[in-house]
Each structure stands twice: as structure tokens, then as C-alpha cells.
């Protein structure tokens, strides 16, 4: 480069024997040793310039001769003894201009450098393998297929007037592509490489002096580092190091110098202003003609940008690797999340199915109070959702098998009935169902073996039926409610299906618990129903057969616990020949009301049967006094009619009627006409013992029917009682002419009943 021509303070200007001291082979030393360069030429060329082959010459401008050639330059020119004329060296190397002509001795790049002028970059051709100038000139024409291009850069190493006039020449080699599409672009690329070479820093150190100091640096060194030559000459170049300089790289350089071998490395150095830069450094030993180490030549290049790009590339690669790892991790996490979601979905679906089954079981099992229907519903819940077939065993209060029900997904009623008769109703101690009922714990047989079947089923016939029905996995769960074992559910799955698991055990146990509670509730209801039936028989007697009349009664209880309530009716054939007709209602709709009604009915019968005054109003007054005095019942309503038979055939019946707050009775004449006895009213029993109730006397023709009832027959939510009475009136009036008491009772209760109150109806037809 032109700026390198003048280098004030250069050691070459201060010491004309610099290159002799540095070990550069001059004409004399080369002639004496017979070598074309220093022993260091045997070392590999430093890879400072990114692997581009570099040939270096030192030219003595005084003699216009080449006095030093590095190994790469030796490879270009062959075994040429130094010193040698620059033109001769160029011819030996096979250098021509771009047209293929030999380099001019006055204007060629080597001659220009030998004349002390710089060459900033000039392209020449290299035709290797040709031994004479004439051969190279003849063969190296334009477009020659064997030619390569070199880019020549040169500049003076010493100032004019120095005793020894030296210049440095650098050749950049670039193998052309197979086909050069754009020659101008190709030349421009070579020019850029030449510029790179001229920007390379060169240093020389003297290992014979203490601490191996610098004895020469070129202008590029001062430009790159910011240090002037006078500031660094005489110092070891470690001053470029700093706190972040890698110790390993420093140790590598130190070891190479100690071993007198070429070392190349990249390390972080610092400029004079403290800024850091990445320095690619190659240090090569230089030996004299006797093989003695005389200097080290350092070649330095600022590769900060390249290192930055490499770091960015490494960072990008690391980021890519991290991103890939994160992507892999994310994919793994997503896959695990998908599996977890599928598992959660499966568990949710199973939980939902279980909840649906339990909800259906609850609603289905509590919807009936019949034991046989309950067991049938339980079997339907189990098959086919839980098993291929099932048999349910029920124990009685003494722990004996009371009954069983079985179900198969394919029907198989005959085989199921035979299996039930031979095995289920006679369970041995080793059978899973018996073991569950004995231990009150589930029994899981995931794999049913022939040995298990032989122990569990003692009947040979039952074993044969079991094999026909098919069973490879069995699960039995006890039905336990209120600390009592009521039976067991045996679930069986056929071969080819999945075996029962712990999840199935939990589900079946839950179902068995609900089934047991439903079974126990049915039994409790049946017990209460039996008690209620017995009580009802005692409180609602069979109507007696009384000469001259026909009668019928109907009773419906509002209680869900027992078929009894507070409503009652009675028909008495009195000692004087008259007939007592009573319909009453004690407040309440349960067993307590029924008990109070029983006491009240007993008092009423006594008052009617042994009445000093048979007048119905007087009888009701006496009953009222006894009820309140004995505290038999809190409140009650009733209607009492005393019918006196006619004194002669065809004469009318005389009916005496009194009412204690009760709905009005109906009279239906033989022709079907209906009369509501609304004028007969009075205070209900249990309010005021001083209350007087009047008696109405009616003469009714034979064939007339008296219909008395309780308010449960006419009361409806949101409706007035008069509306209910009118509806009853319409139903009774609509009955066929000649309808008897039974038909009239049926017609009376044929309307819509809300079942919130007891209903009692008594119909008596006078003959």
C-alpha cells in the first residue's frame, strides 16, 4: 500500500543490518548454505489469511534481486538458489501478464517493487510446470486452461538512503472456477483479497534478546493496535493482552515459542485505547544458515468481525439447538399433555358413566316398593353395563337364602333358572357370593380357573351350566345396609372380555350399597304395611248385614307409610231397631290420627248404643264432652244419621241427621235425583263443649240412598270446596237409575284425587 512506503521509526531505517539480524537469508547466506530460504520454510505456512495460499518474497532493491522466499514462494519458483534476479525468479515461477506475455523487466510488478515503488495490487498469470521463459510465454496465452491468477502486492521495508534497501512482496493465489462467467467480477474478488493481504500486520521479534522483544513492526500493526512503532520496539508483545485474554491461547503461544515451532491461534487482544479486538496470530521461527534460531516472524490479522460472525453463528446455532430442544421438550410436553388429557378424559368419562349409573340406580331402585320388581331392576342395571351376566342372592332376617334373580345379556332364561336352582339357592362356603356375604367384603376373581370353579361350584350340573353360560372373571360384592348383610351381587364376564379390575370393584360396591338400602327400605315398608293392614282391619270393620238396607264403603289413605288415617265410617244396627250411620274425620293423616280415630270411634259407638236420648244432636254433644274430657282427640268432624225403618211396607223411612262441621251428605232418590243436605250444619268436635247441634228429620221413600264422605273427596289445590261438592254432586247424579251403594261409591271416587288427605265414603240404600 502507498502509505507503507514511508515508515518513520522503522527498525529497518535505524538498523541497516536488521534483516541479517532477523535471520533473513541474503545472497551470501543462501549461497553458503545452498538453501533457498530459512529452515523455517519447512514449517507450514500460517493460516492467518483464512486459508488462502500466500507467497512472500524479500527483494534487495540495490541489486534488484530476491534474497528471501518463504516456503509458498519456493513452491512457486522451484529449487532456485538465492539471491536471484527478480525477472529470473518470475520466469522460474512461470509468471506472465494477463495477456500471457513475459513480465516486463521495467514495468512488471516485481520490477516496480524492486525499484522502490509500491504495488497496491496487480494481477498476473501463473503457468506452473514450464521450465523456461520461452515455454511459459508460448503456453500461457489468454484463456489457457492450466493457468492460475496471482495478485501481487508489494511495498518498501526501508527508507531511501538506508544502507540496505529492502521491499516485501506478497502473492495471493486464487484458483479460478471451472468457467469464469464475469471476468471483471473475478478480478475484483482478487483485488479484495490483495487488500486483505496489505492490511496484514507483520512483526519480528529477537529471541536472542531478553524477553524476546519486538524489533520491527509494519504500519498495519500500528494501525490495528493504535501503538506507534517507537512505543512497542523493545517490548514483548504480551502488552496486547488483557484481563479477558484466554490463558489457554497465551499458553499455546508460549509453548510454540519454547519448542521453536510455528503456532497459530486466535485470542482477544486490546488496542492502545483499551478497545478489544480478536487477533488471529501466527508466529513462525526463523533460522540462520547454520540452523540457529535468530528471530520469530509474526503475522497478525484483525478478525473481530469474523469472530463476531462466528459467535453470532454459534449463538444462532445454540439458539437453534435450544429452540429445537425447546420444541422437542414442548412436543414432549404436548404429547404428555395429550396423553394426560386423554387419560383425564377417559377418567372423566368413566366418572360420568359411573355417576350416570348411580343416578339411574337411585331413581330406579327407590321407585318401587315391590321386592321382586326391585331385584329385576337391579339385574337390569348390571347387565350388560357391568357384566355379561349376573345373579343376585337375597338373605332373609335369619341369614338364610330367601330368593335370587339372574340375568344374561343374551337371555338364556332356561340355563339361568337351572343354575339358580342348582347353585345360587344352595351356595357352598367357597363360592364367591357366600364369601362376600360372610366377610361383608368384595371378592375379585380376575381369572377363573378350573380349580376355582371346582371349589366354588360343588354341583356337577351347575358347573356344566356355568360353562355354557360362559365365565372367565367373577366379581362379587355384598349388599350391606344398616349394619346388616342383606345378600350379594355376583357379576360374571365371559371369555374374550376384559377382566374385572379394582375400579370395577369400587363401582360395584357403590351400586351394591344403594341396592341394599333400597332392599332394606322395601322390607321396612312391607313390615309397616303389614302392621297398618292389621290396624286398618281393626279400625275399619266390615259393614254388617242389616235387614232392610244395602250398604257399601270405600277408604283411601293419604299416608305413604301405612294404609291408615284419621277418616272413619261405621254402620250400627241399634237395639231399638234403628240404624246408626256415621262418617267422621280426625285431624291428621298418619298412624297417630288413626289411633285417635280408633278411640273416637269407640266412644261414639258407646254413646250411640247406650244413649238415653237417641237424638243425633244430643249424641254428638255427649261425644264432644267425652273427647274433650278424656283428651281422646284434638279436633274431629263427623255426620251422624239415625234411620228409623217404616212402620208399614211402602211407608217412608224417617232419617234423623246431625252434623259436627262435616261436609254435607247427599241423598239420591230412587229416580236418580240428588239432594245436598246443606242445611244441616254444626260446630266440629273438640272446640266448645257447650255447643248445641240441631237435628234435622227427613222422610225418605224406599230406594233412597244416603251418601256420606270425608273432605278428602272434594278438596283440590286452588279450588273452592263448593266446587268439589258440585263435582261430586254431578258424578252421583250421573250414575244410572237404580245404581246400588257399591256403584255409587265407585262413582264418587272416580274423580281426580290429590291424595293429600284420607278419603272415606259410605253409601246406604234404604229398602
Report the sheet-strand fraction.
15-25%
Main sheet: strand order: 3-2-1-7-6-5-4
In this structure, how is the largest beta sheet organized?
7 strands, antiparallel
Number-wise, the strands total: 27
Structural class: alpha+beta
Contiguous helical run count: 22
CATH superfamily of the largest domain: PAS domain
CATH architecture of the largest domain: 2-Layer Sandwich
The count of domains is: 3
Helix share bin: 25-40%
Q: Termini distance?
A: 153 Å
Outline of the structure:
By secondary structure, this protein is of the alpha+beta class. 37% of the residues lie in helices and 24% in strands.
How are the elements arranged and paired?
Elements: H1 11-14, H2 18-21, H3 27-33, E1 54-60, E2 65-69, H4 71-77, E3 84-85, H5 86-93, E4 95-96, H6 109-114, E5 119-126, H7 133-139, E6 148-156, E7 166-174, H8 183-198, E8 201-205, E9 214-217, H9 219-225, H10 229-232, H11 247-259, E10 263-270, E11 276-287, E12 293-302, H12 304-365, H13 371-382, E13 389-395, E14 401-408, H14 413-422, H15 432-439, E15 443-445, H16 450-456, H17 460-469, E16 473-481, E17 484-493, H18 502-539, E18 549-556, E19 567-573, E20 579-586, H19 591-609, H20 616-630, E21 636-644, E22 653-660, E23 666-668, E24 674-676, E25 696-700, E26 705-709, H21 721-733, H22 741-748, E27 759-766
Antiparallel strand pairs: 1-2, 1-7, 2-3, 4-5, 5-6, 6-7, 8-9, 8-12, 10-11, 11-12, 13-14, 13-17, 15-16, 16-17, 18-27, 19-20, 20-21, 21-22, 22-25, 23-24, 23-26, 26-27
Amino acid at each position: 500500500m502507498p502509505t507503507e512506503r514511508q515508515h518513520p521509526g522503522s527498525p529497518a531505517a535505524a538498523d541497516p543490518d536488521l534483516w541479517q539480524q532477523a535471520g533473513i537469508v541474503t545472497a551470501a547466506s543462501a549461497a553458503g548454505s545452498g538453501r533457498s530460504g530459512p529452515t523455517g520454510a519447512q514449517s507450514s505456512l500460517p493460516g492467518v489469511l483464512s486459508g488462502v495460499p500466500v507467497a512472500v518474497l524479500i527483494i534487495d532493491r540495490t541489486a534488484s534481486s530476491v534474497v528471501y522466499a518463504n516456503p509458498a514462494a519456493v513452491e512457486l519458483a522451484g529449487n532456485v538458489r538465492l539471491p536471484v534476479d527478480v525477472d529470473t525468479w518470475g520466469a522460474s515461477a512461470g509468471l506472465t501478464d494477463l495477456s500471457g506475455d513475459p513480465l516486463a523487466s521495467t514495468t512488471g510488478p516485481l520490477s516496480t517493487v524492486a525499484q522502490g515503488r509500491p504495488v497496491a495490487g496487480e494481477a498476473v498469470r501463473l503457468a506452473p510446470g514450464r521450465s523456461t521463459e520461452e515455454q511459459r510465454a508460448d503456453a500461457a496465452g489468454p484463456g489457457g486452461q492450466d493457468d492460475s491468477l496471482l495478485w501481487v502486492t508489494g511495498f518498501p521495508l526501508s527508507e531511501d538512503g538506508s544502507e540496505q534497501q529492502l521491499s516485501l512482496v506478497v502473492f495471493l493465489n486464487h484458483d479460478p472456477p471451472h468457467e469464469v462467467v464475469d471476468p471483471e467480477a473475478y478480478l475484483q474478488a482478487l483485488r479484495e483479497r490483495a487488500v486483505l493481504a496489505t492490511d496484514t500486520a507483520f512483526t519480528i521479534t529477537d529471541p536472542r534478546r531478553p524477553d524476546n522483544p519486538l524489533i520491527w513492526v509494519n504500519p498495519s500493526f500500528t494501525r490495528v493496535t493504535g501503538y506507534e512503532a517507537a512505543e512497542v520496539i523493545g517490548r514483548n508483545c504480551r502488552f496486547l493482552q488483557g484481563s479477558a485474554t484466554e490463558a489457554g491461547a497465551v499458553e499455546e503461544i508460549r509453548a510454540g515459542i519454547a519448542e521453536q515451532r510455528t503456532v497459530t491461534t486466535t485470542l482477544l487482544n486490546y488496542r492502545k485505547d483499551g478497545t478489544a479486538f480478536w487477533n488471529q496470530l501466527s508466529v513462525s521461527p526463523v533460522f540462520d544458515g547454520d540452523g540457529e534460531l535468530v528471530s520469530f516472524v509474526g503475522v497478525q490479522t484483525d478478525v473481530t468481525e469474523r469472530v463476531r460472525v462466528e459467535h453470532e453463528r454459534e449463538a444462532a446455532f445454540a439458539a437453534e439447538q435450544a429452540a429445537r430442544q425447546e420444541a422437542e421438550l414442548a412436543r414432549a410436553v404436548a404429547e404428555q399433555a395429550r396423553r394426560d388429557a386423554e387419560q383425564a378424559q377417559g377418567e372423566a368419562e368413566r366418572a360420568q358413566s359411573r355417576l350416570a349409573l348411580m343416578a339411574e340406580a337411585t331413581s330406579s331402585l327407590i321407585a318401587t316398593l315391590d321386592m321382586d320388581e326391585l331385584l329385576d331392576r337391579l339385574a337390569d342395571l348390571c347387565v350388560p353395563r357391568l357384566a355379561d351376566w349376573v345373579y343376585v342372592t337375597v338373605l332373609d332376617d335369619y341369614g338364610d337364602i330367601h330368593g335370587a334373580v339372574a340375568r344374561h345379556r343374551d337371555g338364556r332364561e332356561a340355563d339361568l333358572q337351572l343354575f339358580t336352582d342348582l347353585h345360587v339357592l344352595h351356595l357352598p362356603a367357597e363360592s364367591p357370593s357366600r364369601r362376600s356375604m360372610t366377610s361383608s367384603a368384595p371378592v375379585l376373581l380376575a381369572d377363573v380357573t378350573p380349580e376355582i370353579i371346582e371349589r366354588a361350584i360343588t354341583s356337577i350340573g351347575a358347573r356344566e351350566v356355568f360353562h355354557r353360560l360362559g365365565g372367565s372373571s367373577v366379581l362379587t360384592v355384598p349388599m350391606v345396609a344398616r349394619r346388616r348383610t342383606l345378600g350379594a351381587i355376583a357379576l360374571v364376564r365371559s371369555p374374550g372380555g376384559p377382566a374385572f379390575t379394582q375400579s370395577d370393584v369400587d363401582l360395584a360396591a357403590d351400586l351394591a350399597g344403594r341396592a341394599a338400602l333400597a332392599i332394606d327400605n322395601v322390607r321396612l315398608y312391607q313390615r309397616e304395611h303389614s302392621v297398618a293392614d292389621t290396624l286398618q282391619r281393626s279400625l275399619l270393620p266390615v259393614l254388617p248385614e242389616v235387614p232392610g238396607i244395602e250398604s257399601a264403603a270405600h277408604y283411601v289413605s293419604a299416608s305413604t307409610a301405612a294404609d291408615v288415617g284419621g277418616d272413619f265410617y261405621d254402620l250400627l244396627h241399634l237395639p231399638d231397631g234403628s240404624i246408626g250411620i256415621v262418617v267422621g274425620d280426625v285431624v291428621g293423616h298418619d298412624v297417630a290420627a288413626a289411633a285417635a280415630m280408633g278411640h273416637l270411634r269407640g266412644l261414639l259407638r258407646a254413646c250411640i248404643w247406650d244413649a238415653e236420648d237417641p237424638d243425633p244432636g244430643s249424641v254428638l254433644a255427649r261425644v264432644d264432652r267425652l273427647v274433650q274430657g278424656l283428651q281422646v282427640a284434638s279436633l274431629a268432624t263427623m255426620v251422624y244419621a239415625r234411620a228409623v225403618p217404616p212402620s208399614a211396607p211402602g211407608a217412608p223411612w224417617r232419617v234423623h241427621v246431625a252434623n259436627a262441621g262435616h261436609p254435607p251428605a247427599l241423598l239420591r232418590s230412587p229416580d236418580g235425583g240428588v239432594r245436598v243436605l246443606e242445611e244441616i250444619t254444626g260446630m266440629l268436635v273438640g272446640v266448645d263443649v257447650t255447643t248445641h247441634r240441631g237435628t234435622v228429620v227427613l222422610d225418605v221413600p224406599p230406594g233412597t240412598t244416603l251418601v256420606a264422605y270425608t273432605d278428602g273427596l272434594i278438596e283440590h289445590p286452588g279450588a273452592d270446596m263448593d266446587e268439589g261438592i258440585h263435582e261430586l254432586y254431578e258424578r252421583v247424579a250421573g250414575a244410572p237409575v237404580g245404581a246400588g251403594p257399591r256403584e255409587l261409591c265407585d262413582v264418587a271416587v272416580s274423580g281426580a284425587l290429590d291424595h293429600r288427605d284420607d278419603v272415606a265414603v259410605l253409601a246406604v240404600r234404604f229398602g
